[in-house]
Amino acid sequence: MQTQEEKLHATNHYLYYPNEENIPPYLAYGFRPIFLLLAPYFIISMVLWGLVWSGYLNIPFMDNVLIWHVYEMLFGVLTAGVMAFLTTGLPELFPGMVPFVGKRLKYIMLLWIAGRVSFWFIDITGVYLAALLNLAMLAWLIWFAKDVVLDKLQRHASLGYILVIIFGIEVWFFASMLGRSESDALSILKVALGAIVILILLALRRVNMEAVNELMEDKGIDDIYVSRPPLTNLAIFSVALFSIVEYLYPTNSALGWIGLATGAAILAITSDYNLKEKFILNQPYVIYLFSIFILLGLGYAMMGWSILFNDGVGVSSFRHFITAGGLGLSYLMVMITIGWIHTGRHLTSNTYTHLIVFFIIAATFMRGLIPFYEAYAMQLYLWSAVLWSVPFMLYIKVFFKFLLSPRADGIKG
Fold first, then answer.
1. Which CATH architecture has domain 28-208+223-403?
2. CA–CA dist 272, 39 (Å, integer)
3. Closest to 105 in 3D by CA, of 20, 211, 178
4. Residues 6+ apart with CB under 8 A from 153
5. Which residues pair with 274 in a beta bridge?
6. Cα–Cα distance measured from residue 365 to residue 358, given in angstroms and rounded to the nearest whole number
């Protein structure tokens, strides 16, 4: 149970809550409708993809199913995840910002849904409509985050800058789809992946600070977790270098060494969890967050190994340690952390949260290690997709009742 002092501190983030009548719980704060839609969207998209890629299903209205899958798992999901992160976090970071709720939230969610429908049916409705709707969504997010970039202290400006870069990459992607750019659309999406990994690394610094310190406070651990910028900055530089070299010189052996270096740089971030006073690597949420860096680091390192010693065979499979593993677990950890804390509850680990993380990791290894078990490739494609969807089913079971009801502590939002 929260003390009166804790409750008063929490209300500081909601002093400017709009005075709009009859706001349903699912529109009471930015993260709520997003997580309610994102969890089933992950399940539907991934199961469909597994059925298509393993040869059990054909989608007649899609000429290029691979482009659809990669784009939706990158940009389609990104806009929802970033929206949840920004609409929840910015009112806390910048007191005075009005939380985005109610009718305004409903309209922007309709824009996200329209963007998904337009890309699913891009071969019918055309590239221009998909480009307009999806670029409008990302442009709105950048406008919403403008206070981050314009902040005189530049505390979180890097988030705004990388969003602008991602917007430029998405424009480049649609230009390729329209034949206005000679670049291959799939190559552009690989560049986009690098930019999104950088955004994830920047966001994880903030999620780690909130989640780990909240956990230690609840456990009575007298220490402070600090995410050290130099380690994150080195990892960001390495990811950017890998993405640029892969686009310009995809067959150059130097890319292999850069991949190994990038993996090492990301893994180095885990040293932040080594606190001076207390050992915290036995705490569940620390293990969850630690696993994200392990998966991202493994992805880049194994791609580097493949380029150097296996003629690049398996690179696309090893990339799934980054996408299905690192990015997938990142989204889930944001959804879980916000799902507990911002519905007025303490950060809690239980059997369900353990299983969520376990299934993501297991599905990632099933998909990522296909090059070593090529005889079972089709089965592994399908079952890894099904297994990867299970954590989102568990999320629905545990968190949907929180997302559909008012905050447990009685605070608005």
1. Up-down Bundle (1.20)
2. 30
3. 20
4. none
5. 279
6. 11
